[in-house]
Hints:
CATH superfamily: Carbon-nitrogen hydrolase
Bound molecules: acetamide
Number of domains: 1
Number of helices: 7
Order of helices and strands: EHEHHEEEHEEHEHEEEEEEEEH
Amino acid sequence: MKVGFVQTSPLLGRKDENVERAISSIRGVNADLLVLPELFNTGYLFESREELKRSAEIIPEGPTFSKMADLAARENVNLVFGIAEKEGDRFFNSSVVVTPRGGFQIYRKLHLFDREKLWFSSGDRELGVFDIGSSKVGMMICFDWIFPEVARILALKGAEIICHPSNLILPYCQSAMITRCIENGVFAITANRIGTEEKGEMKFSFTGNSQIVDPKGNILKKADECQEGVWTLEIDPGLAKDKKVTPHNHLFKDRKIEFYRKGNLC
Ligand code: ACM
């Protein structure tokens, strides 16, 4: 199975341009699964709910979903991308997987980062795993990485590949994802953005370094911190079915859940 990530540099509020750029970089790439960054169409640094309202879209009726579903069909590729979602008067920082046949699933970011909490509602749905035929994929978004429960639940539900659209600012995630992969025996594709967004006092620089990590923690592919583009490689998602660490150790069966629950900490 050929998987990859698209590392982009979106411009805040220039949706049509951002989507067109991403689409033209994907056209002609031969892959089964491509992951794009968080909020790949809108940019990140919203300053008000009004500004977010102008960019957010209803899924699947909105134009970005529709263009990405067309692209998935034309290029015969499963796409995962981050998008600002509108439902009624609420906004979610969401990720969508769409298949070449138009099937799709939405994940709404559970753990909002910093000022995202001012505009977005946190996710209101369970973490899910989606069978795209060639593998089972789970989605998490950017800052979800710091809550190990997210990757764990996805792995327990059968995800072989964790798709991780991101707009990373802190320097720790790429290293932490190696641990997430080892402790859960899964692949992870972190698709990050590059570039800088500035508004008044605020300046956010995004760290790039998108990567694909295997269940043993090997970095199979890594971009740098300044280049846009698409990176792909061949993987065997079946490797994620093996949860043995040694002949006597199993990542899931060796857990001591009854002790973790003592004191009602979880
Ligand atoms: C982040 O969650 N976008 C840092």
